[in-house]
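SUBJECT: A protein chain and its fold
Encoding: whole-number codes for local backbone shapes
RECORD BEGINS BELOW THIS LINE
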Amino acid sequence: RNLQNPDFESTTAFLGKWGRFQQQVFFLLCLRSIPTGYIGLSVVFLADTPQHRCFIPAHANVSAAWRNRSVPPEEGPGGGLALSQCSRYRLEDMVRFSEGDLLPGVDVNLTNVATEGCLDGWEYDQSVYTSTVVSEWDLVCDDQWKKPLTSSVFFFGILIGSFISGQLSDRFGRKIVTILALVVQAFFTFISIFSPSWAFFCCLYFFVGVGNSSGFVAAFVLGTEIFGPHVRKIFSTLGSNLVFAVGYMLLPLFAFITRDWKMLLVALTLPIPLYLPLWWYVPESPRWLLSQGRVEEAEAIIREAAKKNKIEPPSLIFAPLQGKTQNICDLIGSQNIRGVSFTLICIAIAYFAVSLNTVNLHGNSYLNCFLSATVELPAYVLSWIMFRRCSRRLCLFSTLFTTGLFLLFVQLMPASMTLSKTELSKFAVTIAFSIVYGYTVEVYPTVLRTTALGTSSMIARIGSILSPYIIYLRSYSLSLPYILIGCFSVLCALLSLLLPETYGMPLPDTISQMQRFPGAAL
């Protein structure tokens, strides 16, 4: 049976708000977010599509003039003409014209020359990337559907990782899952380099996603349960997310230096083992230990914290009460989890679709990604300010509605200005993403907090799984992804007004203490 403390925060208030103990745990858990940031969106560069054209074999007797004009023009998604990336003039005809010294466009009317597919494969432009997953396994033309599927497999791994993390963390502890996820993430990221095929790479990349999300969720909840109300707000909206953005900013730097998908994976793996010593410097959540009836261990952690803060603890810290064991089934019928989860789905679609689309915007892909990451820094600062002073519903409504408006009007901008308005959308949706994570922690009780956050995050990954396919729609219409994401965001903004309000409320320890969904029972 569970043992519960009715007022954990007042019982541990003697530790103070910001002593050496809180500082150590705060900075170490924040640093834990760096690998999550640069691996979470690594698919932007790993699976980017370089410019390509049909390959003409070197042994083919084709003149230089015909090699330069071997690709026919076709209408692009923006409406203008562009060179085809999936067809060429028939090789047999080009050989015959070359042997007859006939010049393309002069002696031969190109509109009358038959075309064929890229029967000999493709040649890829290497000015931006030496190699990507796309060029490694020719995920173009008839196989271009595999590119968004690569992203979706990774995000499906994040979905599964979020769910598993919640279950394991609530059963075995937040700390062990936080560290174990690092090992899983490092191992599968590194061995992905040796993938013999695209399908095998996707299988390994799935487990990279599992490790990426499970560690972040466990560490996030660990921090929010250790800190008091004041530091918790900073950690959940500013601390971990700000460092996540720093990791995100490192991604284009790693990609620019390596320019090869295998070397990029090596660069992303090497720093991860440096985080393993966290096991000896970050304690288990005392709240979770109490919920499991492990009172002595919880007291030992609090007494050690008091010693670091140079505070004399009381002789008796916890006077626990008995309660019943609870599991995820107790949340299934909750209106809260349905409302929060739908909001998370919409936010995830907007956030990941805008982030994944950065390499498709006008300008340098590395710089665009860096700017997309940089804009998150002021966004997280503003989210912290709003989280401290504003209603949660007002925060979510204003940021999501702003996101939708910017995205709906982005197609009215010239191509050279699309980046500016897209980054404004990214700024707004990042604020919403940060606030909704902190809000989710406030909604759910200690006994199921990681399970609930993991389940909500898992459901939200439906949005991240769909986002690569929404971006894929730009091959049919450049404005269609922005219209869909914008409509999603506006709808979600309106529905967020129905969520329960948690501003100024203490963290619930039991399901009965959860804030109710307006007009419905828990």
Summary: The CA atoms of residues 169 and 176 lie 8 Å apart. The beta strands are 2-4, 52-54, 73-75, 81-83, 87-89, 115-117, 122-124, 321-323. The chain is about 60% helix and 5% strand. The first helix runs from residue 8 to 11.
